[in-house]
Write a structure and sequence with these properties.
This protein has helices at about 15-25, 45-60, 65-80, 90-95, 105-115, 135-140, 145-150, 170-190, 205-215, and strands at about 125, 155-160, 165-170, 195-200. With about 220 residues, it is α/β, with parallel strands linked by helices.
């Protein structure tokens, strides 16, 4: 799977241009190791970095986060990625700004909804995705997809092999970034173009799916 950002994400938002020098890897950083897509003790893959920066830029543009918030969130997410664990900026931001744990669900929902409204095609929100069966066979046959989904905490909610997929998250920008990566991977592997849809999750459903799919609790 290519780890370069897709063309559809190359048009940078003004705030994204400002965030790039702050949050991108240093100029003398070594490229990601070629042994698969493992990022433990390596640099964060370009595609993940790009998806993170775009999300943070939109969080600022929609007044959901300050520049200081984004700096903290970026450090939190990338630290988890470099340790081989999944992380999501919406979850991290909610943890920073929610007034107590009892407000976490509502804060995530507010952020997720506002981000979704900025996309041309808003993902459908479904409250029952956590009850769906994890596509373990797809993950086992496609470890690159499994890794990217796990790091971005974007479970595959539904799959007919690689032909038809539904990606799920509280972060519609991560789904929007992961979809073309999976499409490119499928084209390279099977010479076919998959049908990929996206759904938006409530916080509890997302945590449940991440735990079930990736055997880790979403922080």
């Amino acid at each position: 799977m290519s780890i370069q950002p897709q063309n559809q994400g190359d048009e940078q938002l003004p705030l994204e241009q400002e965030l790039l020098p702050q949050m991108s890897s240093s100029d003398d950083a070594k490229p990601t190791c070629n042994q698969g897509l493992s990022v433990v003790n390596q640099e964060v893959p370009v595609a993940l970095e790009h998806a993170l920066i775009r999300t943070l830029a939109m969080l600022q543009q929609t007044n959901l986060a300050t520049a200081e918030d984004c700096t903290q969130v970026s450090a939190m997410v990338k630290s988890e990625w470099l340790a081989g664990r999944g992380a999501d900026p919406v979850d991290c931001l909610a943890g920073l700004t929610a007034a107590g744990s009892e407000m976490l669900d509502a804060t995530v929902e507010a952020i997720s909804t506002k981000l979704a409204q900025t996309l041309p095609f808003q993902p459908t929100r479904i409250p029952f995705a956590g009850k769906l069966i994890a596509p373990n066979s797809l993950y086992e046959k496609n470890p690159d997809i499994a890794l990217m989904c796990r790091l971005m905490l974007v479970p595959v909610a539904y799959a007919e092999d690689l032909d038809v997929l539904a990606l799920a998250s509280i972060n519609p920008f991560f789904v929007d970034a992961l979809s073309p990566m999976i499409a490119e991977y499928t084209l390279e592997k099977n010479n076919t173009k998959p049908i990929i849809s996206s759904v938006r999750l409530d916080y509890a459903g997302w945590q449940s799916m991440c735990s079930k799919h990736f055997r880790e609790e979403a922080e």
